[in-house]
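Notes from the 1:1 (GR / supervisor)

We went over the backlog. Supervisor wanted to see one worked example end to end before approving the batch request, so GR pasted a single chain during the call. The sequence is below; no edits were made to it. Supervisor asked that the structure be written out right there so they could see what the output format looks like.
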Amino acid sequence: MADGEREEEHDGPEEDVEAEAQVDFKPLIELPPEVQTKTGEEEEDVIFKMRTKMFRFNEPSKEWKERGTGDVRFLKHKESGKIRVLMRAEKTLRVRANHPLSTNLELKPHAGSDRAFTYFTPDWSEDPETGVVEQKNELFAFRFANAESANKFKEAFEKCKKGDTADMTVIKQDAEDAEKAAEKKEDKKE
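Structure output shown during the call:
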Protein backbone atom coordinates (compact mmCIF):
# COMPACT_ATOMS: atom_id res chain seq x y z
CA MET A 1 0.00 0.00 0.00
CA ALA A 2 1.32 3.49 -0.90
CA ASP A 3 1.62 6.35 1.55
CA GLY A 4 -1.63 8.28 2.02
CA GLU A 5 -3.76 5.36 0.90
CA ARG A 6 -5.69 3.49 3.50
CA GLU A 7 -7.84 0.54 3.15
CA GLU A 8 -11.14 0.92 4.87
CA GLU A 9 -12.45 -2.01 6.77
CA HIS A 10 -16.14 -2.68 7.07
CA ASP A 11 -17.65 -4.99 9.59
CA GLY A 12 -20.90 -5.52 7.69
CA PRO A 13 -22.65 -4.65 4.46
CA GLU A 14 -21.91 -1.21 3.00
CA GLU A 15 -24.36 1.38 4.40
CA ASP A 16 -25.85 4.26 2.38
CA VAL A 17 -25.66 7.34 4.61
CA GLU A 18 -28.19 9.34 2.56
CA ALA A 19 -30.77 6.56 2.71
CA GLU A 20 -30.65 6.62 6.51
CA ALA A 21 -31.62 10.27 6.88
CA GLN A 22 -35.30 10.60 7.75
CA VAL A 23 -35.83 14.30 8.28
CA ASP A 24 -39.33 15.76 8.48
CA PHE A 25 -39.68 19.52 8.02
CA LYS A 26 -42.85 21.20 9.20
CA PRO A 27 -43.85 24.71 8.09
CA LEU A 28 -43.38 27.47 10.63
CA ILE A 29 -46.63 29.11 9.51
CA GLU A 30 -49.71 27.34 8.27
CA LEU A 31 -51.10 29.11 5.20
CA PRO A 32 -54.84 29.51 4.73
CA PRO A 33 -56.50 27.81 1.78
CA GLU A 34 -55.98 29.48 -1.60
CA VAL A 35 -57.86 32.75 -1.86
CA GLN A 36 -59.65 33.60 -5.11
CA THR A 37 -58.92 37.18 -6.15
CA LYS A 38 -61.03 39.22 -8.53
CA THR A 39 -59.45 41.52 -11.09
CA GLY A 40 -62.63 43.23 -12.26
CA GLU A 41 -62.05 41.71 -15.70
CA GLU A 42 -64.13 38.56 -15.23
CA GLU A 43 -67.07 39.89 -17.28
CA GLU A 44 -64.88 41.05 -20.19
CA ASP A 45 -63.16 39.50 -23.18
CA VAL A 46 -59.70 40.56 -24.36
CA ILE A 47 -59.99 41.73 -27.97
CA PHE A 48 -56.52 43.28 -28.26
CA LYS A 49 -53.30 42.81 -26.30
CA MET A 50 -49.82 44.14 -27.04
CA ARG A 51 -46.70 44.91 -25.03
CA THR A 52 -45.92 48.60 -24.63
CA LYS A 53 -44.12 51.16 -22.53
CA MET A 54 -46.55 53.77 -21.25
CA PHE A 55 -45.90 57.38 -20.28
CA ARG A 56 -48.06 60.17 -18.89
CA PHE A 57 -47.47 63.90 -19.24
CA ASN A 58 -46.82 65.64 -15.93
CA GLU A 59 -48.22 69.16 -16.30
CA PRO A 60 -46.38 70.87 -13.37
CA SER A 61 -42.94 69.69 -14.51
CA LYS A 62 -43.78 69.81 -18.24
CA GLU A 63 -42.19 66.40 -18.87
CA TRP A 64 -43.15 62.82 -19.72
CA LYS A 65 -43.07 60.35 -16.80
CA GLU A 66 -42.85 56.63 -17.36
CA ARG A 67 -45.86 54.76 -15.93
CA GLY A 68 -44.60 51.26 -16.66
CA THR A 69 -44.09 48.47 -19.15
CA GLY A 70 -46.71 45.81 -19.76
CA ASP A 71 -49.59 44.77 -21.96
CA VAL A 72 -52.09 47.36 -23.12
CA ARG A 73 -55.40 45.56 -23.56
CA PHE A 74 -58.77 46.43 -25.03
CA LEU A 75 -61.48 44.67 -23.03
CA LYS A 76 -65.03 44.25 -24.32
CA HIS A 77 -67.81 43.76 -21.76
CA LYS A 78 -69.78 40.57 -22.48
CA GLU A 79 -73.21 42.13 -21.84
CA SER A 80 -72.98 45.86 -22.61
CA GLY A 81 -70.41 45.59 -25.43
CA LYS A 82 -68.53 48.63 -24.09
CA ILE A 83 -64.78 48.64 -24.63
CA ARG A 84 -62.19 49.93 -22.21
CA VAL A 85 -58.42 50.34 -22.27
CA LEU A 86 -56.55 48.66 -19.43
CA MET A 87 -52.82 48.63 -18.87
CA ARG A 88 -51.11 47.03 -15.89
CA ALA A 89 -47.41 47.29 -15.07
CA GLU A 90 -46.05 43.79 -15.63
CA LYS A 91 -44.10 43.35 -12.39
CA THR A 92 -46.36 45.07 -9.86
CA LEU A 93 -49.66 44.49 -11.72
CA ARG A 94 -50.74 48.00 -10.73
CA VAL A 95 -53.33 49.57 -12.99
CA ARG A 96 -51.64 52.32 -15.01
CA ALA A 97 -54.44 53.10 -17.48
CA ASN A 98 -58.16 52.37 -17.11
CA HIS A 99 -60.65 54.27 -19.25
CA PRO A 100 -63.41 53.71 -21.80
CA LEU A 101 -62.44 53.70 -25.45
CA SER A 102 -64.86 56.38 -26.61
CA THR A 103 -65.49 57.74 -30.09
CA ASN A 104 -64.14 61.20 -29.21
CA LEU A 105 -60.58 60.00 -28.42
CA GLU A 106 -58.07 61.29 -30.96
CA LEU A 107 -54.95 59.18 -31.45
CA LYS A 108 -51.94 61.24 -32.58
CA PRO A 109 -48.36 60.27 -33.47
CA HIS A 110 -45.97 61.25 -30.70
CA ALA A 111 -43.22 63.72 -31.67
CA GLY A 112 -43.06 62.43 -35.22
CA SER A 113 -42.23 58.88 -34.09
CA ASP A 114 -43.54 55.97 -36.13
CA ARG A 115 -43.77 53.73 -33.06
CA ALA A 116 -45.50 55.93 -30.44
CA PHE A 117 -48.98 57.45 -30.09
CA THR A 118 -50.61 59.87 -27.65
CA TYR A 119 -54.15 60.77 -26.64
CA PHE A 120 -55.92 62.74 -23.91
CA THR A 121 -58.66 61.12 -21.83
CA PRO A 122 -60.33 61.00 -18.41
CA ASP A 123 -58.73 58.05 -16.63
CA TRP A 124 -59.53 55.97 -13.52
CA SER A 125 -56.17 54.45 -12.63
CA GLU A 126 -54.01 54.69 -9.54
CA ASP A 127 -52.18 58.00 -9.14
CA PRO A 128 -48.43 57.24 -9.12
CA GLU A 129 -47.61 59.79 -6.41
CA THR A 130 -50.52 59.30 -3.99
CA GLY A 131 -51.78 55.79 -4.79
CA VAL A 132 -55.36 57.11 -4.82
CA VAL A 133 -57.76 55.88 -7.51
CA GLU A 134 -59.89 58.74 -8.82
CA GLN A 135 -60.93 60.20 -12.15
CA LYS A 136 -58.22 62.43 -13.58
CA ASN A 137 -57.64 63.85 -17.07
CA GLU A 138 -54.40 62.40 -18.46
CA LEU A 139 -52.29 62.73 -21.58
CA PHE A 140 -50.92 59.26 -22.31
CA ALA A 141 -48.20 58.07 -24.67
CA PHE A 142 -47.78 54.43 -25.69
CA ARG A 143 -44.46 53.44 -27.25
CA PHE A 144 -44.10 50.11 -29.03
CA ALA A 145 -41.11 47.98 -30.02
CA ASN A 146 -41.44 48.81 -33.72
CA ALA A 147 -43.57 50.66 -36.28
CA GLU A 148 -45.44 47.49 -37.26
CA SER A 149 -46.66 46.95 -33.68
CA ALA A 150 -47.60 50.62 -33.38
CA ASN A 151 -49.66 50.41 -36.58
CA LYS A 152 -51.48 47.30 -35.28
CA PHE A 153 -52.32 49.26 -32.13
CA LYS A 154 -53.59 52.20 -34.17
CA GLU A 155 -55.70 49.95 -36.41
CA ALA A 156 -57.24 48.15 -33.41
CA PHE A 157 -57.80 51.48 -31.61
CA GLU A 158 -59.68 52.96 -34.59
CA LYS A 159 -61.78 49.80 -35.11
CA CYS A 160 -62.74 49.65 -31.43
CA LYS A 161 -63.67 53.34 -31.38
CA LYS A 162 -66.20 52.63 -34.16
CA GLY A 163 -67.40 49.48 -32.41
CA ASP A 164 -66.21 47.35 -35.35
CA THR A 165 -64.89 44.34 -33.42
CA ALA A 166 -66.73 41.50 -35.17
CA ASP A 167 -63.87 40.49 -37.48
CA MET A 168 -61.10 41.53 -35.10
CA THR A 169 -58.75 38.76 -34.05
CA VAL A 170 -57.02 38.98 -30.73
CA ILE A 171 -53.51 40.28 -31.30
CA LYS A 172 -51.00 38.96 -28.83
CA GLN A 173 -47.32 39.63 -29.21
CA ASP A 174 -44.69 37.88 -27.19
CA ALA A 175 -42.50 40.33 -25.30
CA GLU A 176 -39.27 38.61 -26.32
CA ASP A 177 -40.20 38.74 -30.03
CA ALA A 178 -40.90 42.47 -29.78
CA GLU A 179 -37.58 43.14 -28.06
CA LYS A 180 -35.66 41.03 -30.59
CA ALA A 181 -37.26 42.89 -33.48
CA ALA A 182 -36.33 46.24 -31.90
CA GLU A 183 -32.73 45.07 -31.37
CA LYS A 184 -32.43 43.93 -35.01
CA LYS A 185 -33.68 47.31 -36.21
CA GLU A 186 -31.12 49.13 -34.03
CA ASP A 187 -28.32 46.85 -35.30
CA LYS A 188 -29.20 47.69 -38.90
CA LYS A 189 -28.99 51.43 -38.16
CA GLU A 190 -25.46 51.11 -36.75
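Supervisor's comment: The chain is about 20% helix and 30% strand.
Batch request approved.
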